[in-house]
C-alpha cells in the first residue's frame, strides 16, 4: 500500500541530524542516538549506483538502536530510485529522503543533488516512483535556489510541484546552492541564510512539514526556530559539538530521560568492542566522539587521547573508558552537566 502522507506525526521531525558524507555513518548515528533519544537520524547520501552495483549490506546495515533513521538517496532515474527505496524499506529504514541540495561537482556530473531543483517535473516523477514502491514516508531535502537567483517563486514552484505528488515533508537548507565556483564547504557558508524565505513556505504550504536546515549551531537558536518551523536539522554542529543534541533535546522536552555521560561512554565502549570484533577499526567509532567534551575542562586531552594514532591502532575499546577517566581526573570530579 502506498502512503502519500507520512504515517508519523509532524513532531517526528522536530529534531533531525543532517545527512553528511563521510560523517553520519552508522557508528556516528549510534552515538548520536545515545545523546538524543528522539532525534531523527539520516544516513550519508547513498547513490542509486552504489546500491544497484555495489555491496548493499555495507551501505545499508545499521543497528536497530539507531531508529528512527532515514535513508538519503542520490539519483535522478525514477526506476533506480524506486528500486533503491524498496531496498531501504526492506532493510528497515523509517523514511526515504531524496537529495536535491548537494552542490558538489561529483554530484552534478551524475545529474542529481542540487541541480535537480532545475527539473521539478523530473523530481516529481522520482518521488512518485518511490512512493509507489514503498509504504514509508518519501521526503525531499533541497535548497532555496540555484546560483544567484534569489526569487521566492523558484523554490515555491519547486515545492509546489513535489507537493502535488503527495509528498508532505520538505527539509529546507535555507541557502542557495551555487553550482559553479564554490566548493561544498563554501556552499555551507557563503550563500546567505534566508530563514524568512523558508518561513514563507510554511505559510504557502500549511499542510506540509517544513524542517529548517542551515546555520543552526546554538541551543537557544534551535529552540526558537523549532517554534517557527515544524522542526530543525543540525549539520556540522552535531559533528563538531555533539553535546548540543542533548541540550536541544532537553529544551524541547524538559524531563526527557537522557543517559548520564558515563553511561554513554560505557555504551559506546560495549558497542566498540562488538564492532572491533567484526573488523571495524576503533578510529571509525571514536572520531564521532572527539568534539563531545568541547568547552569543558580536559576537552583538549580527551580529543588528544581519542585521536592518538598509536593508541587507536591498538584497537582496544577500553581507550574510550581511559579517555573518560582522564577527563574526570582533570577536574570534572563528576559527570559534566549538559553533555
Task: Describe what you observe in this structure.
By secondary structure, this protein is an alpha/beta fold. The protein folds into 2 domains: 10-252, Aldolase class I (TIM Barrel, Alpha-Beta Barrel), CATH 3.20.20; 261-332, Four Helix Bundle (Hemerythrin (Met), subunit A) (Up-down Bundle), CATH 1.20.120. Helices cover 45% and strands 14% of the residues. It has 17 helices and 9 strands. An 8-stranded parallel β-barrel has the order 1-2-4-5-6-7-8-9, surrounded by 6 helices. Helix 4 (78-91) links the parallel strand 4 (69-74) and strand 5. The longest helix is centred in the last third of the chain and has 17 residues, at 261-277. The termini are far apart. Residues 1-5 and 333-339 have low confidence and may be disordered.
The total strand number stands at 9
Question: pLDDT under 50 segments (min length 5)?
Answer: 1-5, 333-339
Describe the global form. globular
Strand order of the largest sheet: 1-2-4-5-6-7-8-9
Helix content: 40-55%
Radius of gyration, in angstroms, nearest whole number: 20 Å
Give me the secondary-structure category: alpha/beta
Q: Give the CATH topology of the largest domain.
A: TIM Barrel
* Count of individual helical segments: 17
Strand share of the residues? 5-15%
| CATH-defined architecture of the largest domain | Alpha-Beta Barrel
* Main pleated sheet: 8 strands, parallel, barrel
Number of domains: 2
Could you spell the SSE succession in H and E letters? Answer: EHEEHHEHEHHEHEHHEHEHHHHHHH
What is the overall pLDDT average?
A: 92
- In CATH's first tier, which class of the largest domain applies? Alpha Beta
Q: Give the N-terminus to C-terminus distance in angstroms.
A: 42 Å
Amino acid at each position: 500500500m502506498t502512503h502519500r502522507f507520512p504515517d508519523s506525526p509532524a513532531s517526528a521531525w522536530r529534531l533531525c541530524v543532517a545527512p553528511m558524507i563521510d560523517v553520519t555513518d552508522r557508528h556516528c548515528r549510534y552515538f548520536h542516538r545515545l545523546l538524543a533519544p528522539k532525534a531523527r537520524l539520516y544516513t550519508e547520501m547513498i547513490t542509486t549506483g552504489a546500491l544497484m552495483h555495489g555491496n548493499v549490506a555495507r551501505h545499508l546495515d545499521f543497528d536497530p538502536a539507531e531508529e528512527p533513521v532515514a535513508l538519503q538517496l542520490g539519483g535522478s532515474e525514477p526506476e533506480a530510485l524506486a528500486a533503491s527505496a524498496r531496498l531501504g524499506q526492506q532493510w528497515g529504514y523509517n523514511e526515504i529522503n531524496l537529495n536535491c541540495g548537494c552542490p558538489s561537482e561529483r554530484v552534478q556530473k551524475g545529474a542529481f543533488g542540487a541541480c535537480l531543483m532545475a527539473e521539478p517535473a523530473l523530481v516529481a516523477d522520482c518521488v512518485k516512483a518511490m512512493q509507489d514502491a514503498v509504504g514509508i514516508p518519501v521526503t525531499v531535502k533541497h535548497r532555496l535556489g540555484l546560483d544567484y537567483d534569489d526569487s521566492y517563486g523558484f523554490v515555491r514552484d519547486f515545492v509546489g510541484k513535489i507537493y502535488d505528488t503527495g509528498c508532505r515533508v520538505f527539509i529546507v537548507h535555507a541557502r542557495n546552492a551555487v553550482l559553479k565556483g564554490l566548493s561544498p564547504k563554501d556552499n555551507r557558508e557563503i550563500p546567505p541564510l534566508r530563514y524568512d524565505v523558508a518561513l514563507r513556505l510554511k505559510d504557502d504550504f500549511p499542510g506540509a512539514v517544513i524542517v529548517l536546515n542551515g546555520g543552526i549551531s546554538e541551543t537557544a537558536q534551535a529552540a526558537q526556530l523549532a517554534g517557527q518551523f515544524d522542526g530543525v536539522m543540525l549539520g556540522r554542529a552535531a559533528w563538531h559539538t555533539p553535546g548540543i543534541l542533548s541540550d536541544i533535546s532537553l529544551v524541547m522536552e524538559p524531563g526527557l530521560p537522557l543517559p548520564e555521560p558515563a553511561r554513554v561512554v560505557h555504551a559506546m565502549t560495549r558497542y566498540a568492542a562488538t564492532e572491533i570484533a567484526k573488523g571495524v577499526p576503533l578510529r571509525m567509532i571514536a572520531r564521532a566522539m572527539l568534539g563531545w567534551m568541547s568547552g569543558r575542562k580536559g576537552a583538549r586531552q580527551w580529543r588528544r587521547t581519542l585521536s592518538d594514532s598509536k593508541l587507536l591502532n591498538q584497537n582496544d575499546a577500553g581507550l574510550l573508558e581511559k579517555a573518560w577517566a582522564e577527563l574526570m581526573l582533570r577536574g570534572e570530579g563528576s559527570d559534566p552537566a549538559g553533555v
